[in-house]
Amino acid sequence: SLKMASDSPESLMTLCTDYCLRNLEGTLCYLLDNETLRLHPDIFLPSEICDKLVNEYVELVKTDSIFEPHESFFTLFSDPRSTRLARIHLREHIVQDQDLEAIRKQDLIELYLTNCEKLTAKSLQTLVSFSHTLISLSLFGCSNIFYEEENPGGCEDDCLVNPTRQVLVKDFTFEGFSRLRILNLGRLIEGVNVETLLRPLASLAALDLSGIQLNDVGFLTQWKDSLVSLVLYNMDLSEEHIQVIAQLRKLRHLDISRDHLSSYYKFKLTRRVLNLFVENLVNLTSLDISGHTMLENCTIPSMEEKMGQTSIEPAKSSIAPFRGLKRPLQFLGLFETSLCRLTHIPAYKVSGDKNEEQVLNAIEAYTEHRPEITSRAINLLFDIARIERCSQLLRALQLVITALKCHKDDKNIQVTGSAALFYLTNSEYRMEQSVKLRRQVIQVVLNGMESYQEVTVQRNCCLTLCNFSIPEELEFQYRRVNELLLNILNQSRQDESIQRIAVHLCNALVCQVDNDHKEAVGKMGFVMTMLKLIQKKLADKTCDQVMEFSWSALWNITDETPDNCEMFLNYSGMKLFLECLKEFPEKQELHRNMLGLLGNVAEVKELRPQLMTSQFISVFSNLLESKADGIEVSYNACGVLSHIMFDGLEAWGICEPHREEVVKRMWAAIQSWDINSRRNINYRSFEPILRLLPQGISPVSQHWATWALYNLVSVYPDKYCPLLIKEGGIPLLKDMIKMASARQETKEMAR
């Protein structure tokens, strides 16, 4: 069903939400005084729609760089009579005090504030306005929400010396939050008295105190009849903690896991502790002890282990204390513990580092709140994808995409995630991936390139893009990809390998695309960037792939795009052409790319006068004899000259070489080519060639054009016959056969 899920289109609700958020003014809102968004007065939306609008808005601001946040977005939901909110999830710097303040009249049931570091104690006061309805609240990572600004002295001058000080709020409690059942205070700032804060809550069902150090947790027993979920991740435990936990007999989910790399940690897990949990917490369905060191051996000796298939039956458990379980656990967290490698583990889902299944379970369980653990799990997945074959490819891809989106600013996750994506999108997995999924990969890769100038991330992202069909699969983000790649190539200090991949991608992106795409990319500075790269390579006297790809990219981007041809000339492209020819006389591929490009320039009538110098004409004439790359260099040089000849005698503004002499060399060159030559060239249109048929000014140009058509339709009939017919070549050839000025051999070929 995962396969189907990834293939099915987005729901109509999702599409509409996305459209409205990207076009607020044209749909739900109007602009007041050209700056403030206001809801149209006849709009009334239920919470199912408003929740989605707010949650998707946060997601878009976080993961879509093109999406513009609105200062006054949250004010659209200030009046519950027209817009109702119930369950909202807000993240990071997107939310500020005034945003929560704007929605204070709403009867919120669920409010998740994750890593909202801009929220201060002003927002604590706003929370009170939701106290009568709130059932679920998360303040995870809101590190400043218990701080208020204190302005000492209140005097103007003194304030410059003494900026506002941050003071810890000591008197806030959850007094009056009568319905609150689920609370996450993860990574709460030191100095807040948790016991006092929580005491007014009558019946807590779930509590998360991740990353908080409390020596005394005795107060938890006040909820021993209601607490079903307790998370104490990275809390330094002691015997006292264990005794308290054992009294919370209603617990179904207990997480005492830790990051084994964080700090020195005295507590060690023993057989007795696990036995205590199993005996006392009889409702337990989920337990996480990841990262713990076992003080003693809790495993059943392998002699006594039941042989046969791996089993999740508690009676066969390889972990001795778990033989006392009534039934297998739904989840058991054993990531970075020795226990995950045992044979019989009594749980349906295990997080660990033994195999792909355990690693994926770890990524799934820890992504949201524990990036430090997730990045290590993704690193393990990277090894699996690189060395073995992933058997749960779609799940792996979706989990990595989610982690990269969720932690856009976490360097470790961006490095390991982008590396894993490279292996998960390569060709052997191609068939299993839907268009939608592959687009999601491209989006997160581009996000990574945008946020990180870091070499490893940039290289991983560029390499991953090479796994896609270019330009087709990147078409939907065409502008953005090009901007990012040009950005990489314009950096002053450059990593050789990234430069090579980026130029290769740029070249592929401008190959076989519409002219408006090429014009747009030209305006972004594409031509200039490539010429700068060529200039650098020339200065180093190196002709490598970067040099060849850069000329190839210029050849592609100037194809039937006069603006880009003109840019090439304006930025001294011809000077570079001559210097490259002189510096690298033996480089055939380079010569072909350069002449292909000049063929494009010569097709533009207004630019041809700039090619009309003794130096250029001599160079082109000499290249007619070139044997480089089969006939390609000679063919392209002849093409350039054919267009120049087509402008007639009066356009020949030079004394040397003589026009007749060049014409003679052109005839000789064309006659020397093998008519069945296989070609290193790709025509999207014959229009520039067909132009040379109905004219009597230059019979040699007419002959070159006829030869080109004859060769292409006879060697590649399936591709080029339809193109010749479609572009009206047949009547032009028929008319040419009747022309008196045309040479006999040209007519033969035309016939």
From TrEMBL:
Residues 196-337 form the Zer-1-like leucine-rich repeats region domain. The keyword Hydrolase does not apply. Residues 404-750 form the Protein zer-1 homolog-like C-terminal domain. Pfam families: LRR_Zer-1, ZER1-like_2nd. The keyword Repeat applies. Belongs to the zyg-11 family. This is Protein zer-1 homolog. It comes from Motacilla alba. The lineage of its organism: Eukaryota, Metazoa, Chordata, Craniata, Vertebrata. The gene is Zer1.
